[in-house]
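In this supplementary section we document a worked example of the pipeline. Step one takes a protein sequence of length 269 as its only input; no multiple sequence alignment statistics are reported here. Step two produces a three-dimensional model, which step three serialises into C-alpha cells for compact storage. The input and output of this example are shown verbatim.
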Amino acid sequence: MLYRITHSTRYAYPSPVTQCFNEAHLTPRAAFLQNHIDYFGNEVSTFAVFEKHDRFAAIAASVVEVQPAGAEILSSPPWEEVRDLLAHPLQRESIAASEFIFDSPYISALGDLREYARPTFTPGRPLLSALEELTCRIHDEFKYQPKSTSIDTPLLEILRDRQGVCQDFAHLMIGALRSLRLSARYVSGYIRSGPRFQGAAASHAWVSVFDPQNGWLSFDPTNNLMVSDAHITLAWGRDYSDVTPMKGLTLGGGGQSVEVEVRVQPLEV
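The serialised model returned by step three reads:
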C-alpha cells in the first residue's frame, strides 16, 4: 500500500511566547530525512523559534509505501518459555528485547494487570494464541471513547472504567504483558481511515511483543487485529513518553491550546 500522510499540529497562546524548543517524532521509520537518531533508533527532528509569536504550526508530510506482511505465522513457543528466555537472554536479539520487560514512566507492571492477563495466559499456552486472545479481550471489554482520558490517566483507572483511546489500550496491554515478564514495546504511527478501523483521526498506537521464534509480533487492541499494511510506523519505545509526536518547552504564553489533524490517504500504486 502507498499512502500520503499529513500530520498538522497547531499551537495558540493567550499571550506571546518569547521562545520555544520542540522535538518531533513525525518521520516514518526508514524514511530518508534524518536529523538525529534516538536511543531506540527513531528519527527525531528538533527545532526552535526565537522570535516572539502567539501561534505556530508544525506540518509533517510523507509518502510512504507499506509492504504486506510475510508468510503467515503458524506456531510460537509456550509463553513461559519466552518469559524464561528473557530472564536469562543469551542471543543478541533476546538481550535487546529484554529491556522492554521493565517498568517505564507511564507503565508499571501492577498486580491488577497481572490478574487481568492471567485467565488468558494459561500454563503451556503458545504465545501467539495468548496474544491474539488478549488483543481481542481488550477490544471487546473496553470502550473506545475519544477525549475520555488524558495521557496522565493512571492505568488502574483505565482498567476500572473500561474506556479510553488507543494510547490507553496499548499501555494497558503492555502493562499486562510486562507483569508476566514478557517483552512488549509501544509503537506510535498511523492507521488508514475506513469503517473497519478506529483511531485514524489522530496518531495511532499499538503493541509489539518479542517472540524468539518469529521476532517482534505487532497487535492493535483498539481494532482487534494483527498489524498489517493498514498501519504506518513512526517510532517505538517503552511507552508514549519515548515517542511523543510533538513536545517542547516555551517561555511565556500563559498556557496553550493544541489542535492535531491527521490524514492518511491511500494512493494508487
